[in-house]
Amino acid sequence: MQRAPLAVVAALAATLIAGCDDGATSITPSTSLSSAPAAEAAAAAVDYSAWQAGTSKPAADGLYPQHGTAALDVLHYDLKLAWQPAKKTLTGTATLRIRPTADAAQMRLDFKPYEIDKATVDGAPVTATVAKEKLVVPAAVTKDKPVTLVVAYHGKPTTTPIPSHRSDVEPLGLTITKEGGLWTMQEPWGAFTWYPANDHPSDKALYDVAVTVPTGWSGIAAGALVTQQGNTFRYRSTDPMASYLQTLAVGKYKKVSAKGPRGIPLTYWYRPGKDEKFVPSLKKSPAFISFLEKRFGPYPFPTGGAVMVDSESAMETQQMITMGGKTKKFDRAYFEEDVLHEYAHQWFGDSVTPTTWTDLWLNEGWATYAQFLYSQSVEKYSDKELEDYLRRADADLRKRLGPPGKPKAANFAESNVYLCPAAMLKELNDALGDEKFFALARAWVQEHKNTQQSRASFTAFVNEHTGRDFTKLINSWLDSKSTPRPA
Predict the structure, then answer these.
(1) C-alpha dihedral over 324, 327, 332, 338, to 10 degrees?
(2) Which residue of 244, 312, 343, 356 is most buried, as measured by CB atoms within 10 A?
(3) If you read the UniProt record, what top EC class would you report for this enzyme, in one word (predicted)?
């Protein structure tokens, strides 16, 4: 995620230089509502191993226990969506392949209050209800015995608040534009504003998303664009994805196709008459990805790209970063650093994801440090100048917001989880030297691809990989109330 903290990178560089029609089709459930015995027999034939790559170990969140559940592991989301701008109505059918992690009398998922048209579990009709942003499905489940939940729904999307005091904070979830389009950013949550979800990073899943839009419009989602048939755009994610990394954008977009390093297909979506000024910077994506690959190893997904939306911020949505075009004054250098920051998250946050939000620093520290390395390569400031700046910023942020390893629930994704862990990584880099540090970084992301990790696993990996005990350095930078002394 990029938000306010990127301003400090621009500030540092400046200091050093100066001394997402009514004709949209309706969606019907993909699972038949036939008699229960027949439906159960059909359900028994489902081969859930097809979605084995979506297996996770869901965890309860200490910061935000009201979101997500450790009782369900969603293996796969099949979302069939249709958007009618004139009516401001989203119609959807969500088919979830779910592995219960415990015996239970019902299933509970995160979901906004849409009107439920139909719901089935393994083909049998159930009366599902939505209250207090929870979908309650009264169907008993058995630990490790997968089930198929289908929910058909419709309604007007609404957003949900973000627990942060950042200057660029916006409501989370599916947002309707003035032109009748859609876009979403949803960290730490918000996917539940447009489909039933286990809206927590500890539960990664595979995705198939079909978006039907009016003629002349485009529908964009995370993952790879598989087909476009008429007004329906179909996307697939063969790498597991946390719900906050999914995206949806609908509007009158134009598509630019390109190739990245090693022939990686890249796509940039922009709106003519609105986003042209950003396109030259988006076209630099191959260079940004090359810069990151040299330090962190191969780009972790089969496709990449970016979509422009009406936000003040940006987001590392998987395989399709979301860039905000709502800005009073366009600063090209700032925007391009932001693009690189979001691409860096494809390694740190998307491929390797924190188990809980307490370890958001694992995402933002690495992406911010990668951004500083890029900025340094462009602006040519010295390691000492970077070190001095990071220490000054770290001291101020710890005083105002506390240490990055102990974030406060009301201060989600504020600057301390960006700059302070970036300063820690600079110390680790200094202690190891570039060759060993980037070997460590490459090994971390490549060996833990498509997994969820934590502070404990990161510390253990650093110590094992380097043959040195960096526990004290890591803990002091994550927990200390003041800036640690140089190692």
Answers:
(1) -40
(2) 244
(3) hydrolase
Stretch (H or E) spanning 134: strand 134-137
pLDDT tens digits, one per residue of 321-376: 999 999 888 999 999 999 999 999 999 999 999 999 999 999 999 999 999 999 99
Between CA 13 and CA 372 the distance in angstroms is 9
In degrees and rounded to multiples of 5, residue 370 shows phi and psi of: -60, -40
How confident is the model over 376-386, as a mean pLDDT? Answer: 97
Q: What is the pLDDT of residue 481?
A: 96
Q: For residue 393, tell me if it sits in a domain.
A: yes
Beta bridge partners of 249: 220
CA separation for the pair 61, 178 (Å, rounded): 35
Q: How far apart are CA 76 and CA 248, in angstroms?
A: 17
Q: How many CA atoms lie within 13 A of 249 on its CB side?
A: 27
What pTM, to 2 d.p., does this model score? 0.92
Tell me how far apart the alpha carbons of residues 60 and 156 are, in angstroms, rounded to a whole number: 30
| Contact predicate 86/21, CB 8 Å | yes
Name the residue range of residue 402's domain. 355-479
Q: Does residue 57 lie within any of the structural domains? A: no
Mean pLDDT of 61-76: 98
Structure confidence at residue 15 (pLDDT): 41
Question: Which residue carries 């740190």 as its tokens?
Answer: 348
Domain-embedded: residue 103: no
394-414 pLDDT, tens digit per residue, is 999 999 999 999 999 999 999
- Per-residue pLDDT at 169: 85
Burial tier of 383 (Cβ tally within 10 Å: 0-12, 13-18, 19+) = exposed
Number of domains in the chain: 1
- Name beta bridge partners: 98: 74, 147
CATH number of the domain bearing residue 410: 1.10.390.10
In a domain, 383, yes or no: yes
Cβ neighbours, 10 Å, residue 20: 28
Count of alpha carbons within 13 angstroms of residue 291, beta-carbon side: 22
